[in-house]
Each structure stands twice: as C-alpha cells, then as structure tokens.
Amino acid sequence: MTSDKKWWEKEPLRFECQADCFKCCTKPGIVYFDKASIENAAKILKISSELLKKEFLLWDDGHWVHEVANGDPCAFLVPEGCSIHNGKPIQCRSYPFWKENMTSKSMWSLVGAFCPGIGFGSHVAITTIRKFLNQFKL
Ligand code: SF4
Ligand code: SF4
Fold first, then answer.
1. How much is the mean pLDDT over the chain?
2. Among 14, 21, 98, 120, which residue has the most ligand 1 atoms within 8 Å of its CB, making it the best to mutate?
3. Pocket test for ligand 2, best of 92, 94, 95, 98 (most atoms within 8 A of CB)
4. How far apart are alpha carbons 91 and 132 in whole angstroms?
5. Residue 40 alpha carbon to ligand 2 centre in Å
6. Which residue in 1, 51, 118, 122 has the fewest CB atoms around it within 10 Å?
7. Ligand 1, atom 5: closest residue by C-alpha
8. Which residues have any ligand 1 atom within 6 Å of their CB?
9. Tens of pLDDT along 62-112?
C-alpha cells in the first residue's frame, strides 16, 4: 500500500531565517500584496493605501504587486530589515514554504542552495507548512 503523504510530511524540515541575510528581499521578482497587506503596510508606513499603491505597487493581471527589479532590492527593505515586517505579505511570511519550492526534495535542496536558513534551526511543524501552502497559492 502506498502512502499519500508528501515527502516533507515524512521527514521533518528545519528552517530559521538568518539575521542580516535579506537575500530573498533582493531577488528580482514580484511580491503580491492582497487587500490586508496593503492596509497593514500603509498603516505601518503611516500613509494611505492609495499612496502606497501609487508609490510602490502596480496592478498586474488582477493583483496588486511590487516589482523587485534586477539589481534593486525590494523598496520596503531598509538596512535594519523589512520596514513593513509586522504587516508584510503572506508571500514573504511563508517563504521558503512555497508550493513551487516544495514539489520535491531535490527542489527543496536547490532552494536551500539559495536560502541559508534552510537546514538550520528547529523543525518546522507540518501544520505550519500546510498553513503556508494553503495561504500562499499564487
Ligand atoms: S534567503 Fe532565507 S535566510 Fe535569507 S532572509 Fe530570506 S528566508 Fe531568511
Ligand atoms: S516586503 Fe519586506 S519581506 Fe517582503 S520582499 Fe520586501 S523587504 Fe522583503
């Protein structure tokens, strides 16, 4: 009889974000901002949601996104870290536990070659990983 368990449900994964790393905040790509993230970030920065959108976000295919261009870090990154840390989007909060990163153990190893927090720290509960995968589906 075969098990329906995912590979990451069979072997505990360790992860601990490393202080002063910020590699994932400087990688070119797109950060998705849902309504709650927009409101939270605007509140933290003490600006209106409209101004946040105007200054930092683009409307792209039905989503508000922040574009991290090649060579530039995310605009919310400051020397101390993420300036909207307590309100950052689920995409950032759930990294590296993204669906695309969890497809196989070898994929996870590839992500681990980029993210130095993978393989460090305590085991991450399977329920936490499931929650991230359910929350960030893009
Ligand atoms: S790349 Fe990994 S260790 Fe570095 S900041 Fe991002 S999550 Fe943390
Ligand atoms: S919003 Fe914050 S955590 Fe997300 S990429 Fe930008 S600086 Fe990093």
1. 95
2. 21
3. 92
4. 9
5. 13
6. 1
7. 22
8. 17-18, 21-24, 95-96, 115-117
9. 999 999 998 899 999 999 999 999 999 999 999 999 999 999 999 999 999
> What local confidence, expressed as pLDDT, does residue 137 receive?
78
Sorted by where each begins, the domain ranges of the chain are 9-135
Single pTM value for the model: 0.93
